[in-house]
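Running log. JK asked me to keep both predictions on one page so they can be read side by side. First protein, sequence followed by its tokens:
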Amino acid sequence: MKRLTAFLFLIALAAPGAASAQETDPHAIYEQSCARCHEAHAGDFVHNRLELKADRLVSTSSGKDIEVFLSGGHGRLEPAERQILLDQLIAIRQSGQLFHDKCLTCHDRAVEFARSRLIVKDGVLVGRYSGKNTGQFLQGHGRLTPDEADRMFDVLKRQLQVPAN
């Protein structure tokens, strides 16, 4: 039975789509396709170089629409990867630099923190080890205002909704 299980596992790894499933992590897409020429992390890139105008991300230096730029071949991304990356960059921009400003002093990057310290249990975002309700915990943590706690909850929850590499 162990040999059969190991054999099936190896077949699953070699199957088409097994590798591509890993590439749907927006952080991995950015780090593999963008970070060698731009900032190491998407959050830094977004806040240093992009702004949101009329629901479109544009370069602060050139004013060019990032979607058009990527569609023209920049980054050599597949259409599905472009959309995953664009959705992530827009979400980062909309969330502001709240994690950077209020949480980074004590915690790793939001994606690392969420994926290593939080889980969804019975439909509720909780601490992986404490079991505490994250939404409730944030209301009295890190000198966050109630609005900031709600936004931070959304940021952390989003990190667990996108596939990890």
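And the second, directly underneath as requested:
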Amino acid sequence: MSMTETAVAATDFEKCADRSLYFTLSLYVSGDRVEAALGQRLAPSIVRGFQANYRASQRLRNGVEPLLNDIADRERLNKVDDFLLDTLCPAAGEFLEVTVPDKIEWMTEGRRFTATPPGLNKTRTVRVRRFWYTHANGAVGYHLSFRYNYDHTPGDFFFLSLMQKLAAPKEFEIKGTVPEGKEIRPTDAQTGIAPLDAIKVKGAGGRPANFWHFVRDTFNADAADLFSKLKEYCPPAKPPKNPVPAFDNLVAEAPFIEVPGLIMPVSRLLFFFEDKTFFRRLLPEIDPATEKPAPRSLMVQEGCYAAYQTELAGCEVPAVNGVPQFELAKPFWKWVADRPDYDQYTDEQIETARK
């Protein structure tokens, strides 16, 4: 389905379909930084009245806050002091074309792997929505929620993993020489870190950009709109110390210890899968004799991984500078797809047999 067709078919609300991944990237802006850009503390009393008339915030509140109330005690003295606020993102979401390279290389536990899973570099359409969440202490969260409908293929599974590495690029390193004392940030033109540089996203009518460049640019547009409207709604008594609400001076950041020299925005990444096959193969089923779930240990056992270790050993190539090297090329992926040592049932056949 093309981006245009996807956009036409989209509605404001959507059902959670099988083989869907939802992942939300959340960025933190402290209360002090918000105050410096706004000229006053972002008190709940301001947001309570502002929410109702700011873009589609009221609709967002009506759709999402009942879910929040189901899982958290949000009341303090019979009041709720945190709020959802809309952004410039269209109500039906924005559709991004995402491309990744056809080969990825990483290092873990002292071993370097190079993988070329088939179909990895195809262009994929990912849906994204954005929203703000204000906290009682004046801090603000900026959230980008992505959705991707995937297939059960090595290329798609590696793609999902690479999406996670955009926020936490563990197992990757900075290529090239980094000058003493220089810090690398994901919003730099080039970082030397494979997933941060090679993965490209493109919105409707836009040009391909690095993921964090897209995040920075959307944040800047959304923050400029939000803060200007907040100042109109409740003019500050004093001029802001930092009047330009921008990604570089609002979003908190910290060293990423797994990659020395890298400074990452302080963020949280939440993954949610909807996948009947995946969970049915992992979760214990009811034993008809006892009418109780089978022991979880029966579902995934040590032997499940033994064949992969054997096959990986056959992918080893000569070491480089003492580092073991493994190339996961076409023969490995054919074995993964065929698994001659395993059952030949498709997901659809297994689903039919369970009915």
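Observation for JK regarding the second prediction: The first helix runs from residue 3 to 9.
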